[in-house]
Amino acid sequence: MTAPTGRRERKKAATRQKIADAALRLFLERGYEAVGIRDVAAEADVAVTTLFAHFPAKEALVFGHDQDFERRLTEAVTDRAPGEPLIPALRREVQALVRHCTGDGAAPIWRLIDASQTLLDYEKSMRLRHAESLAAAIAADLGLPPATTACRTIARFVIDAYSLAREAADPEAALDEVFRMIEAAWAVARPAVDPTGTTEP
Fold first, then answer.
1. Is 165 strand, coil or helix?
2. Residue of 18, 7, 4 lying closest to 47 (CA atoms)
3. Is 135 helix (H, G, I), strand (E, B) or coil?
4. Are 182 and 154 in contact (CB under 8 A)?
5. All residues at 6 or more sequence positions from 88 whose CB lies less than 8 Å from its CB, including other chains
6. Phi, then psi, of 72 in degrees rounded to 5
7. Concatenated DSSP letters for 23-81?
8. Segment 161-174, tens digit of pLDDT
């Protein structure tokens, strides 16, 4: 996440982190369903209104990096170097996200998520939203409408690659395998959506 620069931004970021840490601590101790918003606010020593100013829903307390992940995925498209192919840029970002989500301390959080249908449903809706944002970024990069089927399909493949690799025993090998298929699919789809071939070498 981009580091906040101003004093006010740093204070907001610190409060948000304090709330997220308190929520995770309670969720892991008691279980997600057993903890209420007021419990989290009390643990973090903030007002409920302050909590909601940082997290729009209880589920968002578990997925604190949601917006940052979405931004990073779209910026992998929009901020890549001139002439850099799309799929390798996306693979590099997905690889970084997978490493983050399989690092030390991640396993208890995923067990928490897997034990709650509410959190599983939220994660599913979050993945779909990320895929739609990524599809819009890919389409914009090609000068196409956001709903272009090929762009939406590739975006969903990329989001699924993240999920599959995160769950795999060997995330790196899983990413290699899935992205080979994504490369092949994009090689077929790209000429149809970008017949000039000017976007990638």
1. helix
2. 18
3. helix
4. yes
5. none
6. -65, -40
7. HHHHHHHH-STT--HHHHHHHHT--HHHHHHH-SSGGGGT-TTHHHHHHHHHHHHHTSP
8. 999 999 899 999 99
